[in-house]
Write a structure and sequence with these properties.
Structural class: mainly alpha
Number of strands: 5
Number of domains: 3
Largest sheet: 5 strands, parallel
CATH topology of the largest domain: DNA Cyclobutane Dipyrimidine Photolyase, subunit A, domain 3
Mean pLDDT: 97
Order of helices and strands: EHEHHEHEHEHHHHHHHHHHHHHHH
CATH architecture of the largest domain: Orthogonal Bundle
CATH superfamily of the largest domain: DNA Cyclobutane Dipyrimidine Photolyase, subunit A, domain 3
Low-confidence stretches: none
Shape: globular
Strand content: 5-15%
Helix content: 40-55%
Number of helices: 20
Radius of gyration: 23 Å
Length: about 475
């Protein structure tokens, strides 16, 4: 019998179109390993909401493997050490893995190749990060030319089928149980809203894709309207690899609509963000543009009690700006937020409250079920004006007019029940219209005051 083939699972928790699993199954008995390595990721270890999703995604994948009379071995600790130990115990030489580009995974891959035969595959993006380059062979920094170059290189690789069989080793290594990891909160159990909102399986990812196929033509017009369900909500499934972007692209490629054209560019943005984090590994914690971290006069919640109170009000959805509060409460309840509202809430924290984007990045990291390192950091730095490709800081989103422009009334009623009885246009700014409910806060800062303060601080920084 051929030697066992170790498959190292990370954010690729699917059984179909999984290159590492597909190729390992052709070479011998498969031993799939998932190592929960919190130390390697440091302050970007999975946050609370992501841990909830991880629990159920692993549970689902264990079921998929069980249908092949196979299983997933769970270990906790240093990923390189655990994989090397298992390989040594089983007499295995080869580890198959899909490439991951987060800095800690790149470091781990480099360390593992010194110990074992590590076969890496491209499985999590439309095109391998680093493969889309300028004419001189350099990586792109700006999204628009990157997007155009990616479109010229498409289609992506073909979708790989689920392995027909997964042969098993003579003996299985010992592992943890999923319950040992205590990924689900218990005291208190704050995850019920997340559990009620989502189904966490590979099958539900494909069900959502099937639904989305029938609605994607509406995406270009309706994607900015948080009150209607006209976005894919595939992001957490993509993040944990329960469905691949290649599967999505091939399913939708024959669509002829502006909606598909726009959505395809969203998939490309995901590739772009990964290319950014490959070029700038510290992008999730350091501003790309010089001076923004230590010379801009940010309000520091660690040193300023008023800034700390404002940050807490933003986190809790108690700012007095209904669309901001609806977004932050949707995030807390479901682990997800509509993309238009993500931009509004991010802009509010950075520009209305003058709090550094890193505080928002960390909060989203802990509360989003789709908390992807590259996408989260790239989006925050885009809004802040600090990124390699970003909006100008002086472009300050007006949340009250954005709320009315994008017809957010029903969205607000859903997530801010104190305002559910208000009609339009009063619901967008009840304080201005003189109908502020007793149980809903007044604005923590006026829009004009916030805008003038932000622009003044920005001008001082530029000078």
């Amino acid at each position: 019998m051929s030697k066992p083939q170790i498959v190292w699972l990370r954010r690729d928790l699917r059984i179909a179109d999984n290159p590492a699993l597909y190729h390992a199954a052709k070479e011998g008995p498969v031993v799939a390993i998932y190592v929960l390595d919190d130390e390697a990721a440091g302050h970007h270890a999975y946050g609370g909401a992501s841990r909830v999703w991880l629990h159920y995604a692993l549970e689902d994948l264990q079921t998929s493997f069980g249908k092949h009379n196979a299983k997933i071995v769970l270990r906790r600790g240093d990923a390189v050490e655990e994989l090397a130990a298992i390989a040594n115990d089983m007499g295995a030489d080869t580890v198959h893995a899909n490439r991951h580009y987060e800095p800690w995974w790149r470091k781990a891959q480099g360390a593992l190749v010194e110990k074992l035969d590590l076969k890496l595959y491209d499985g999590n993006y439309l095109l391998p990060p680093g493969s889309v380059t300028t004419g001189s062979g350099d990586p792109y920094k700006i999204y628009t030319p990157f997007s155009k170059a990616t479109l010229e290189k498409l289609p992506p690789r073909d979708v790989l089928p689920e392995p027909e069989t997964l042969s098993s080793p003579d003996n299985w290594p010992q592992g943890d149980t999923l319950e040992d990891w205590q990924l689900l909160p218990t005291d208190p159990d704050w995850a019920k809203g997340i559990e009620d909102h989502w189904e966490f399986t590979q099958e539900s990812a494909h069900d959502r894709l099937e639904w989305w196929e029938g609605h994607i033509a509406e995406y270009d017009d309706a994607r900015n309207l948080p009150s209607v369900d006209k976005v894919s909500q595939l992001s957490p499934y993509l993040h944990f690899g329960q469905i691949s972007p290649v599967q999505i692209w091939h399913e939708l490629k024959d669509k002829r609509s502006q909606g598909w054209t726009t959505f395809e560019k969203e998939l490309i943005w995901r590739d772009y963000a990964q290319n950014v984090i490959c070029q700038f590994p510290s992008y999730a914690s350091e501003s790309y543009r010089e001076g923004w971290d230590d010379e801009m006069d940010w309000r520091d919640p660690h040193k300023d009690d008023e800034a700390a109170r404002d940050l807490e009000a933003w986190q809790q959805g108690r700012t007095g700006y209904p669309i901001v509060d609806a977004g932050m409460r949707q995030l807390w309840q479901t682990g997800w937020m509509h993309n238009r509202v993500r931009m509004i809430t991010a802009s509010f924290l950075i520009k209305h409250l003058l709090i550094h984007w890193r505080h928002g990045e960390q909060w989203f990291w802990d509360t989003l079920v789709d908390a992807d390192l590259a996408s989260n950091a790239t989006n925050w730095q885009w809004v802040a004006g600090t990124g390699v490709d970003s909006n100008m800081f002086s472009r300050i989103m007006a949340p009250l007019s954005q709320s009315e422009k994008f017809d957010a009334a029903e969205y607000i009623r859903t997530y801010v029940p104190e305002l559910a009885g208000l009609d339009e246009p009063y619901i967008h700014d009840p304080e201005e219209h003189g109908c502020l409910p007793e149980d809903y806060p007044a604005k923590i800062i006026g829009h004009r005051e916030a805008r003038e303060r932000a622009l003044s601080v920005y001008q001082d920084f530029k000078n």
